[in-house]
Amino acid sequence: MSKPLKQIHLAAHFPGVNNTTVWSDPAAGSHIEFSSFAHFARTAERAKFDFLFLAEGLRLREQGGRIYDLDVVGRPDTFTVLAALAAVTDRLGLTGTINSTFNEPYEVARQFASLDHLSAGRSAWNVVTSWDAFTGENFRRGGFLPQEERYSRAKEFLATATELFDSWRGDEILADQATGTFLGDAKAGAFVHQGQHFDIHGRFNVPRSPQGRPVIFQAGDSDEGREFAAAEADAIFSRYATLKEGQAFYTDVKSRLARYGRRHDQLLILPAATFVLGDTEQEAAELAREVRRRQVSGATALKHLEFVWNRDLSGYDPEGPLPDVDPVVSEEHISRGRAQVRMYRDPLAIAREWRQLAEANKWSIRDLVINTGNRQTFVGTPAHVARTINDFVQADASDGFILVPHLTPSGLDTFADKVVPLLQEQGVFRADYAGTTLRDHLGLAHPDTGAAAERAAS
């Protein structure tokens, strides 16, 4: 008997801080005006996507003491944007990245519970930690948390927020919906939490939301991050976009679920993916090359090389050879607030490898960055891209993809119009929403809150 086809999950990422957006394209729109967010969300909902995802940076990145040239200055607050999008969409899930290092559980729980009410059960929280004191300088507790403790705080943060969500039992209602006056159980919303990071007690003042609590996402790729996802998350983002790497990540993370009493279908694995479409394979390949060159200007290539070399390279020609000087290995780094810095643990080894690649391929600095950086995940005709996405999912390399177009806000339109109908024809993607909440879209059960609620009420 043949194995039933898995259903594909699709989401859309409105990029913020990024090297993805082709800002020079006349079709590139604002990352600040609400009309851009609304267009993007409406396209995703028209295509029956599971959710829209907003990342969030808590500090503008700097390089050599100057704001990094690809940062979006003035990006609106995540909760504000998602709440506004709840009013212009009906089914699309609304996912936001909110930091557990520099926020407080009561505040974040109240914001997500409110968003879940405003959206009729479509909210999701991407729980992240912050690893650098540079970002922390924007906050009262800047730099206070050692890196090894950040997941400890994140776990307790999420546990505490869950206690707040669960402090209202399912049978408690508002007696007067017009005024919000509650006349029921006096224990509603009561909570007490004492732990290493938080010592709070009181009453949670937002009633039970339509989903019970928001869907939980996690984005860490470290062993701690994978374990955290296996224990707590409903979905985990993945950075592995090749079939082999995707299958290895998928197998590893799913194998951790059993120790927490969870089934394989209780955690979804969703890599980010870029795409370029063309009427022919050749046209798509040529467009992909052009997009990549426009994503990596000469100035951008030099800045990227500085991540590794940890020195000012502005005097070098991006169309010329790599520097003959070695990287500066130091605890002090030219780039601040950048996750990329952590990816290059051994800059001297990376420099040697890149010099060998550049020499063998006759690459300039810009050529090297273009060819070693993040290239488009899916390139081809709509039929080819639809087939490849389905192959990944059926081969257990992912449960779906979070699509990141290189144009905002219109870059998702062609995918919605040309690729999604082909997936629907194959019977691997919904023709319409079957439910109303994000948990419905993702195939996740409503949380069982009975025991947790009783503990909180007592």
Architecture overview:
By secondary structure, this protein is α/β, with parallel strands linked by helices. It folds into two domains: 9-274 and 377-457, TIM Barrel; 283-372, no CATH class. Helices cover 38% and strands 14% of the residues. The chain has 16 helices and 15 strands. It has helices spanning 34-46, 78-86, 105-118, 133-136, 150-165, 223-232, 243-255, 281-295, 298-309, 340-343, 347-361, 365-372, 382-394, 413-425, 438-442, 450-457; strands spanning 9-14, 51-54, 62-63, 66-67, 93-99, 123-128, 190-194, 199-203, 215-218, 235-238, 268-273, 275-277, 335-336, 378-380, 400-403. Strands 1-2-5-6-9-10-11-15 form an eight-stranded parallel β-barrel, surrounded by six helices. Helix 3 packs across helix 5, helix 9 crosses helix 12 (365-372) and helix 13 (382-394) crosses helix 14. The protein is globular and about 70 Å long. 39% of the residues are buried. Residues 171-177 and 449-458 have low confidence and may be disordered.
Which CATH C-level class of the largest domain is it? Alpha Beta
Question: How are the strands of the largest sheet arranged?
Answer: 1-2-5-6-9-10-11-15
Q: Strand fraction band? A: 5-15%
Number of strands: 15
Query: Helical proportion?
Result: 25-40%
Structural class, by secondary structure, is alpha/beta
In CATH, the topology of the largest domain is named TIM Barrel
Shape, per Cα inertia axes: globular
User: What would you give as the CATH superfamily of the largest domain?
Assistant: Luciferase-like domain
CATH level-two architecture of the largest domain: Alpha-Beta Barrel
Biggest β-sheet description:
8 strands, parallel, barrel
User: Measured on Cα atoms, how large is the radius of gyration?
Assistant: 23 Å
What is the overall number of helices? 16
